[in-house]
């Protein structure tokens, strides 16, 4: 790629663990002063010790009192009042050591909170630190110029050097090895082939490569993530504000208990001791630490949540509404089947269609071109290409006129059958023809995400009791998807206004989450308690109004976020309840005169440290599913990548079965059967055998033991049996032609093999291949 100056693009910052003295300095100074006072006391200089301890108490009292006055000015009555009263009380009764211990306790809590918050938000801060500022752009004369990032436009050709951050979204011009962990959360390196899409923010982990920019910097993925990171500050969650509302009962109880102890005994010291042990650090510190820790964990899983309040609400959610397209399905059309007219060649149909569509920006065109490249077809350069919006594309390929688009005129019998089959399966059809009419068709589908069904199961396990799919699609297609993924209810042909009404209705009964990806989902996302957008592109209205954004194209990360949110909320409530419960017990003991202020201060310090350390547990744990080891991931990716070839063999099988069913005496019937049998014997069965010997034993652990793969092994046996059954028919053909009496059994074997293998592939992709953290479809 040539040598370029390394200063063009900022190097990745070296991350070193440094002590932030802005957080730890107050605690250090307070502790040092406390120890100096202890030294004076040991030297029998009581007055000097009291002077130092009094100064420490006053140093903690002034900022605490100022914070309390600001709360009261805004008509907020919080538990900070008790901390201030405790510090004032120690000064009044001249228990300076107790006051100093309380001051150190408050400083310790704040320092621990700062430590937890820095640890919890370091993933978000890393996004800002890594943001590229410049890019290398190729000039028309072939030179390389360094330009500011805001001067990069869609269509520019860039150069990404080794170790550089990809500056904008684009397509790679040659094979590249990338580290996508910052954007997707996946730690494994990813290989991208020529022409594949690459998101900004990922790191080039291999040799330099060319990049064709498809978006400018402001519209790219990384810019959207950075904007969300800037907003994802750990503001007080509702459970913390709820703690302040509890102060309306807790503070009077504390003051009443302290007053009763003083009134009944006449000892003001007891009242001060009650106030000392009532200092409410568990509510003030432990709860937000747990919530912020949860924010950090979901960020590492590829989910950015704007604030702690949204995380807390996600942990209380009971109802989930999901859009279909782009959420439960891939949102991008995929060419699922190519059909040729009787006597035609399917590969030629696809080659001609993809050649004409090469220059079209339409998403359907991309699906055709992608399938042709996957099958290794050599595309020709089209001529005289014209595109009529809504009708299709016309051009010449190798001198032949080719039309790709809608069906015109009265269809032939074979075309009617294809159209009916597509309608029943919920697929759309692209017709390929010439000036004489159609000679082929390509069926397109929006496939259900492989991880959708598993994710729905995990969401139920996490506590969501009602799952509803809302979509603007047709009822037949919507019901098919709903049955596949296992939701409770489906609402089809739903307009954006109706989506909002439905979300509002559900939100009136329970905490509701809405998941969507399109601009039409934005109003519903804004209406829900927690709106979740699929994919942080930085330019969609759905991401702008959402409370959380999935930065990776995997629905199962939503289940991760729900599980982590519930766990963090549970830890927060547990920490607050245990801390305040212990404090109440200590308050009663202090009221009885059994706990002097100094001892109470040390006891409260221990309680605070205990609950804060417990809150830090939210930084790990809580996920129900088990990961798979790296060697198993490699096997999953390998066999998932082979499914494209298996599906191609399946398409040939279905075409051949249809040929046998409609024209069993055709001369091309037996050769087609032999070719299908050869492909299954040479390609499909070795694939299934490899899975049986290597993949299934490796998967015996994560899904639940050997029994989890036993049904799949039984399907392997059935697939092999049906292939042998077809081979038995072929071995007994006396004259190379099918006998009428053997056609029914042969058709039963062919269609049975088609059904069993399709189901087998679907189960593998949903239950097994979705275990791999690789983002996007298998390559």
TrEMBL record:
Pfam families reported for this sequence: E1-E2_ATPase, Hemerythrin, Hydrolase
Membrane topology (UniProt): Multi-pass membrane protein
Superkingdom classification of source: Bacteria
Keyword Magnesium applies: no
Keywords linked to the UniProt accession: ATP-binding, Cell membrane, Membrane, Metal-binding, Nucleotide-binding, Translocase, Transmembrane, Transmembrane helix
Sequence similarity: Belongs to the cation transport ATPase (P-type) (TC 3.A.3) family. Type IB subfamily.
Protein name listed in UniProt: Heavy metal-(Cd/Co/Hg/Pb/Zn)-translocating P-type ATPase
Source organism of the structure: Micromonospora krabiensis
């Amino acid at each position: 790629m040539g040598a370029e100056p390394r200063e063009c693009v900022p190097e990745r910052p070296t991350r070193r663990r440094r002590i932030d003295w802005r957080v730890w300095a107050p605690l250090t100074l307070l502790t040092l002063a406390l120890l100096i006072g202890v030294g004076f006391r040991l030297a029998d200089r009581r007055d000097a010790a009291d002077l130092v301890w009094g100064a420490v108490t006053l140093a903690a009292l002034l900022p605490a009192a100022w914070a309390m006055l600001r709360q009261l000015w805004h008509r907020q009555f919080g538990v900070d009042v008790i901390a201030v009263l405790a510090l004032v009380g120690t000064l009044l009764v001249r228990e300076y050591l107790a006051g100093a211990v309380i001051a150190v306790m408050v400083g310790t809590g704040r320092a621990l909170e700062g430590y937890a918050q820095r640890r919890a938000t370091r993933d978000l801060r890393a996004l800002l630190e890594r943001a590229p500022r410049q890019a290398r752009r190729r000039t028309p004369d072939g030179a390389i110029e360094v330009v500011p990032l805001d001067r990069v436009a869609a269509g520019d050709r860039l150069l990404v050097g080794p170790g550089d951050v990809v500056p904008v979204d684009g397509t790679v011009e040659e094979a590249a090895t990338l580290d996508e962990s910052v954007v997707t959360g996946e730690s494994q390196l990813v290989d991208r082939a020529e022409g594949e899409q690459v998101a900004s923010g990922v790191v080039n982990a291999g040799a330099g490569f060319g990049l064709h920019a498809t978006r400018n910097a402001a519209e790219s993925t990384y810019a959207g993530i950075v904007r969300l990171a800037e907003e994802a500050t750990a503001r007080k969650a509702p459970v913390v504000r709820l703690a302040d509302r509890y102060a309306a009962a807790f503070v009077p109880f504390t003051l009443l208990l302290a007053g009763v102890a003083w009134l009944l005994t006449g000892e003001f010291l007891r009242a001060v001791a009650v106030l000392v042990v009532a200092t409410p650090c568990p509510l003030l510190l432990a709860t937000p630490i747990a919530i912020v820790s949860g924010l950090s964990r979901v960020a590492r899983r590829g989910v950015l949540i704007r604030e702690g309040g949204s995380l807390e609400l996600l942990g209380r959610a009971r109802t989930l509404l999901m859009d279909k397209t782009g959420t439960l399905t891939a949102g991008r059309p995929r060419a699922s089947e190519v059909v040729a007219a009787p006597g035609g060649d399917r590969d030629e149909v696809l080659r001609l269609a993809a050649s004409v569509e090469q220059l079209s920006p339409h998403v359907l065109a991309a699906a055709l071109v992608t399938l042709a490249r996957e099958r290794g077809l050599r595309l020709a350069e089209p001529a005289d290409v014209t595109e009529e919006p809504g009708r299709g594309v016309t051009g010449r390929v190798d001198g032949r006129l080719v039309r790709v688009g809608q069906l015109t005129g009265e269809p032939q019998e074979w075309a009617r059958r294809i159209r009916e089959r597509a309608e029943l399966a919920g697929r759309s059809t692209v017709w390929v023809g010439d000036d004489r009419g159609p000679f082929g068709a390509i069926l397109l589908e929006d496939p259900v995400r492989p991880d959708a069904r598993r994710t729905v199961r995990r969401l139920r396990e996490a506590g969501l009791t009602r799952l509803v799919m809302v979509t603007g699609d047709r009822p037949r297609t919507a019901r098919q998807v709903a049955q596949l993924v296992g939701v409770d209810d489906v609402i089809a042909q739903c307009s954006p206004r109706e989506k909002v009404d439905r979300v509002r209705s559900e939100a009136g009964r329970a905490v509701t989450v809405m998941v969507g990806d399109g601009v039409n989902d934005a109003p519903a996302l804004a209406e829900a308690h927690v709106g979740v957008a699929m994919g942080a592109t930085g330019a969609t209205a759905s991401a702008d109004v959402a409370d959380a954004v999935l930065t990776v194209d995997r629905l199962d990360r939503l289940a991760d976020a729900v599980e982590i949110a519930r766990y963090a909320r549970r830890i927060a409530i547990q920490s607050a309840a245990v801390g305040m419960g212990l404090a109440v017990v200590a308050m009663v003991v202090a009221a009885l005169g059994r706990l002097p202020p100094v001892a109470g201060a040390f006891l409260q310090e221990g309680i605070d440290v205990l609950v804060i350390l417990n809150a830090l547990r939210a930084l790990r744990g809580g996920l129900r599913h088990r990961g798979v080891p790296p060697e198993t991931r490699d096997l999953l990716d390998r066999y998932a990548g082979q499914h494209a070839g298996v599906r191609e063999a399946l398409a040939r099988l279905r075409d051949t079965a249809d040929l046998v069913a409609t024209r069993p005496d055709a001369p091309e019937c037996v050769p087609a059967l032999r070719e299908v049998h050869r492909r299954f014997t040479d390609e499909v069965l070795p694939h299934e055998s490899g899975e049986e010997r290597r993949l299934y034993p490796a998967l015996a652990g994560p899904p639940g033991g050997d029994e989890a793969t036993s049904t799949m092994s039984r399907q392997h046996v059935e697939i092999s049996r049906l292939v042998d059954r077809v081979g038995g028919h072929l071995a007994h053909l006396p004259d190379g032609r099918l006998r009428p009496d053997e056609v029914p059994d042969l058709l039963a074997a062919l269609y049975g093999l088609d059904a069993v293998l399709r189901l087998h592939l679907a189960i593998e992709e949903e239950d097994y291949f979705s275990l791999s953290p690789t983002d996007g479809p298998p390559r």
